[in-house]
Description:
Blueprint lengths: L7 E5 L2 E2 L16 E5 L51 E4 L4 E2 L14 E8 L17 E2 L5 E10 L4 E11 L6 E2 L2 E2 L11 E6 L6 E9 L3 E6 L24 E6 L4 E7 L8 E3 L4 E2 L6 E2 L6 E2 L7 E2 L17 E3 L5 E3 L4 H6 L9 E5 L4 E4 L1 E3 L9 E3 L4 E3 L22 E3 L11 E4 L8 E6 L9 E4 L13 E2 L8 E2 L3
Parallel strand pairs: 4-9, 18-23, 25-31
Antiparallel strand pairs: 1-2, 1-3, 5-7, 6-8, 8-9, 10-11, 12-13, 13-14, 14-15, 16-32, 17-18, 17-24, 19-20, 19-21, 22-23, 24-25, 26-27, 28-29, 30-31, 33-34
Amino acid sequence: MPTLPSPYRLYCRGILLTAALGLSACGGSSGSVTYTPASTPTPTAMPTAAPTTAPTAAPTAAPTTAPTAAPTAAPTANTAPVANAGVDKSAVIGVLVRLDASASSDANGDSLTFRWSLVSFPTGSNVALSASNIAMPTFTPDRAGVYTFQVVVSDATTSTSDQLSVTASAAPTGIGGGSTTTGSTKGVLCDYNDSTFNESASVNATSTANWSCTATQRNLTANGLPDHAVGTFPNANNPNTISQQTVSDSFTLNPETADTATTLGGPRGVTGYVLNGVKIDAGTAGSCDDSGNACSLTGNTGNWSIEALGQTHFNFGTDTNNAHVQPSGAYHYHGMPEGFITKRGGNSTKMTLIGWAADGFPIYARYGYSDPDDASSALKQMLGSYQLVDPVSSSRPSIRTYALGTFSQDWEYVAGSGDLDECNGRTGVTPEFPNGIYHYFATDNYPYFQRCVKGVVETGGGTGTGQGTAPSSGNTPPRRIGG
């Protein structure tokens, strides 16, 4: 039997031959012998090692119990407001007194409402508050004695009250008395004289202003030229050239308030002069008819008087001093005379006297004492007491074309809404008049300068018109104002 190569097996006719059988099982012949490879055992795969990373723990199921709601904060308890009617005051018969509850407060920051009432007053008095539902109403004592006022301050939930007393007496000599207020201005700026060459291309000349006083009169002579930098005149919206004027006017040194205010300006007469001899004329001669289709910046023929400042529809060609030029060549102020105030050193740290009104009372610029009776109180910017009308007249030109504030008639005086009366003035102390006097203010809001005077005055003289260029309105072409 042949040696079998490993790993073969020997078969003969399908019979596995063993060493014992030999080839005899195939008849001793090797021709029928076949070699078949032995089955190679399939190697068993080694088991894959389990990963060494620890198995991730299954997430813990959220508790099925509903979470406990956060406790609701207890509502803040309402604290009653603190009413503060202000300190007791002394007053002069016939002189306006302002009450002031603006120092009232509320710890919760709630909005406050006010209700004033007159608790007691001198026998025979007929005084009334200008308003009862504002923080700072006014009244004018008409009898000597004590006036007691109460203010109730409410935050809509609770309210508290406070009282103050105003003791009125006859005025000391030189301050007031009876139903009028007087105040001598003798000795105040009676020697104001200025001569300044104005280098502005629109002037290029010397401005002169001379003030003097007699026993009873304050006198002014000037050439009407401004003594500070000005804009370009003529310009696209003001065709007039600045020229010298002959200014000569007189004012009483002992002004006194009248029973009623007198409206001035334009043909009614000059309302006053700045110390440099340039006149004050806040209004204009421009107007529109009811339709708003016919507007002119001269003549004042329409029912709606156009304002020079505070509106954007009409351009009067004013400069940064809120001034422009009339056809006569007169440079004049419609509002705050910024260049002159700067020349006088005016700022927020002091009251600055800038001129005299036609009735002889002084005019100050922008800042006054927060308490009109206390020269040690903080200075504040004065605000006029005019508000836009509501409702708007049905005869007014459309507000879609002419925004509210375009016309003088868009404004109405609302006592107590600002710091000043209907003539942009008030009674109080000033640096020049420590005992108090009635005085006016130039303000940054309407009416900008006084348009009426509270003192006795003889009207007449002076003409004032506002000139500029009106834009197209409807089918009406722009109108150039010449002169």
